[in-house]
Structure formats: C-alpha cells, structure tokens
Amino acid sequence: MIIEPKMRGFICLTAHPAGCAENVKRQISYVESQKLPNGPKKVLVIGASTGFGLSSRITAAFGAGAATIGVFFEKEPLEGKTASAGYYNTVAFHEEASHAGLYAKSINGDAFSKEVKQETIDLIKQDLGTVDLVIYSLASPVRKHPETGVLHRSVLKPIDQSYQNKTVDFHTGIVTDVSIEPATGDDIPNTIAVMGGEDWQLWLEALRGAGVLAPNVITVAYSYIGPELTNPVYRHGTIGRAKDHLEATAARITEQLKDLNGSAFVSVNKALVTQSSSAIPVVPLYISLLYKVMKEKNIHEGTIEQMSRLFHDHLYAAQPAAKDAQGRIRIDDWELREDVQAAVAELWKGVSTETISQIGDLKGYKDDFLNLFGFSVPGIDYTKEVDEMAIIK
Ligand code: NAD
Ligand code: NA
Fold first, then answer.
1. ipTM exceeds 0.90
2. Which residues are catalytic?
3. 51 labelled as ligand-binding?
4. Which of 1, 140, 289, 364 is the most buried (most CB within 10 A)?
5. SS3 for the chain, per residue?
C-alpha cells in the first residue's frame, strides 16, 4: 500500500516501513564508524524499539558486536493497517543483524508483567546463558502493577502551584500561553509507579534470581533534568519525582548486585524529539530553540550520537568520564552548557508565532517528529507501494 502520515494530536497513527528501515540503517552506519573494541557481549534492552533504547541496542550490536535481546510493546501490522514505528524499526534491525551475523531476538509484550520477565529469562537461559548489560529505557503513560493489578497512569503536572508558560503546537507553529494545573489526588504516587525505579529493580531482581546475570554486569536507566524554564513541569513536577525515584533506585540495585560486582547507573540524557517528549507541554518549544542553538554551535546530537558517547566515554571507557555529585552519568552536559542555556533563554523571551520560524528550529523539530514514524526521511519515495505486512524475523 501507499502509506501517508495520519496525525492525531501528538501521535501519528501510521508508520512507514521503508522510512523506519532507512532510519535504522543510518544509525547503524554511524556506529560502524565508531567501533567499540571492549564493549558488551550479551545485552538485554528493555524498551528496545524506539528512541534511546533502539539506539542503545544498535550501539551494542553494530558498535560492539553484541548479541541482543530486545523487549518492547508495539503494534503488529494488519492487512491494510500499518504496524507501529517501533515494530518496523525492529523488522529492519533484525534484518541488518542477520546480514551481519549478529544474534538478535525480540519479545513484544508488557515489560511490566511477570510473564514477559519470565519469557525473557527463559530466552536468555536458552540462547545466551547470561547477559552482561541490561539497558532499561521504558517510557510509558501507564503501568499495570504486577502484584496489585492496579492500572497506574502517569501525569505531567507541576506540584503545588499551577504553571504558565509559552508552548507551541509544532504542527501549526502557533505559540500560545499554556496553564497547567497542579497535581491532585494520587497523581504523584501514580507517576512514580509508572516512571520511577520499581520496575527496573523488579527486572534486576528477577534476572539475578534466575542466575542470568554475568559477573560485573552493568545496568543503565535514563533520566532527564533540563533547563530552569521547564523545571515546574518537568524536574520539579510529577515526572521529576519519578526520576528522583529512578535515580535513587540505582544505588539500591548496585547494593543487590554486590556479589556479582555489578553496577547500576543512571545516565542523564539530552532533550530529544521522541514520541514521549512531544507530549510534554512547553518542552517542544524549548527543544526547537535548543536545536537551533546546538546546531549553530555544531554540538547537536541525536539518540544514536548520545548512546555512542555513553558507551565510549562512560560505560566502556578505560578511564570513564566523571560522574556528577549524585553519581549520575551526564551526557546532557552539552545541552546544559552555560553558553547554550544563555542563548536559549534569550531566544525564549522573543519567541512567538511570528518569530519562531526564524529564531527556532521548528522545521528540525517537525522533521524529527515525522522521522520517528518513518516519514520525511531523505531518500525514500513515498509515492511507491510498500509492504505493510513486513514482519519481525
Ligand atoms: P520512546 O517512547 O522512544 O521509547 C519507549 C520504549 O518503551 C519503546 O521501545 C516502547 O515500545 C517501550 N515500551 C513502552 N511501554 C512498554 C511496555 N509496557 N512494555 C514493554 N515496552 C514498553 O522513549 P524515549 O524518549 O527513548 O525514552 C526512554 C527513556 O529515556 C525514558 O526513561 C525517558 O524519560 C528517558 N529520556 C528521554 C529524553 C527525551 O528527550 N526523549 C531525554 C532524557 C531521558
Ligand atoms: Na527507548
């Protein structure tokens, strides 16, 4: 069929298999130019189909030659109805891995459930024995708790006070003021239940209990801090509480992995256009100004450049770069550089519907957003028929 983007709010209901494949190939060729000699060998990536998780998987496989197992939650294709982008990304990843002679298997299901954890353990036992790196890169609006069965929903709200600032509808370029009401009821604990560290810890407990973690195992989860201007809705908001919890969980997991000499880290990553970040108010406007500034300074990175730097300079470096006072890996260092933040703050004052196309990189934002679904990818002929029924092999 011929596949076009079908937008509904902040999501795109369709995905293009050829565009997704091209994105995966581009990421692979980036890491192939940055080989990692002493990298991981057997890797589990939880949240492996899009964003930072997919780029982590590509870096491990094509940068370090690792065998990878990916876990994710994606929609399969139906006749006349496309799969989700993460599904097509994985179709392409498996195809490329198979050409390169790399082991790759994937599990499509709810990573929060006991069943998917058990299925993953069984697969590791059967094929790999153990894993030496576990990447935890889930981003989800909901989590069904495996013990209580309660369905927790995360929210993106400030705490105590309402918050007003500018925001952009990146489809139309219209900048408006948005006011977000503070969290109420169980918003904070619910958000922590979904995006905090409990499930990360449950994964590591299950893997350790099953004896499928290698000595010196490393596990990494991803966090975000961001600029002062998004603090009320991000780091000091409900999601920030979940990130505090996630970060505190790293120390607990390291303690539990003592007998294996294992370590758990949190890496604080840069703001990037992903399906998750486009849903946060104010953040897309910030990102479009940030992109403009970072591109002008020649320090812009996408998820693959970020993950490659994480592996090279931190996780597998002979002399790992310094961590911050809280023990976190900081690959948001270029985003938070003083000159970058000062430039963004200056642009923020003058940004409006009239000025955004000159002072911001709205086009870069939109292109990246469309790219997430395999659209607007250079070199793809969108007038050509493609097979929507491409399946993971
Ligand atoms: P993403 O939406 O691109 O990826 C989320 C992944 O989780 C996908 O593979 C998806 O299939 C999987 N997933 C979601 N629910 C699942 C479930 N129930 N079971 C199994 N898999 C499930 O997100 P992302 O932006 O790459 O975010 C990954 C992590 O990085 C998050 O912790 C996020 O907070 C963090 N982070 C993001 C940014 C950013 O700007 N995007 C910046 C810093 C840190
Ligand atoms: Na991810």
1. yes
2. 234
3. yes
4. 289
5. CCCCCCEECCEECCCCHHHHHHHHHHHHHHHHCCCCCCCCCEEEEECCCCHHHHHHHHHHHHHHCCEEEEEECCCCCECCECCCHHHHHHHHHHHHHHHCCCCEEEEECCCCCHHHHHHHHHHHHHHHCCEEEEEECCCCCEEECCCCCCEEECCCCCCCCCEEEEEEECCCCEEEEEEECCCCCCHHHHHHHHHCCHHHHHHHHHHHHCCCEEEEEEEEEEECCCCHHHCCCCCCCHHHHHHHHHHHHHHHHHHHCHHHCCEEEEEECCCCCCCCHHHCCCHHHHHHHHHHHHHHCCCCCCHHHHHHHHHHHHHCCCCCCCCCCCCCEECCCCCCCHHHHHHHHHHHHHCCCCCHHHHCCHHHHHHHHHHHCCCCCCCCCCCCCCCCCCCCC
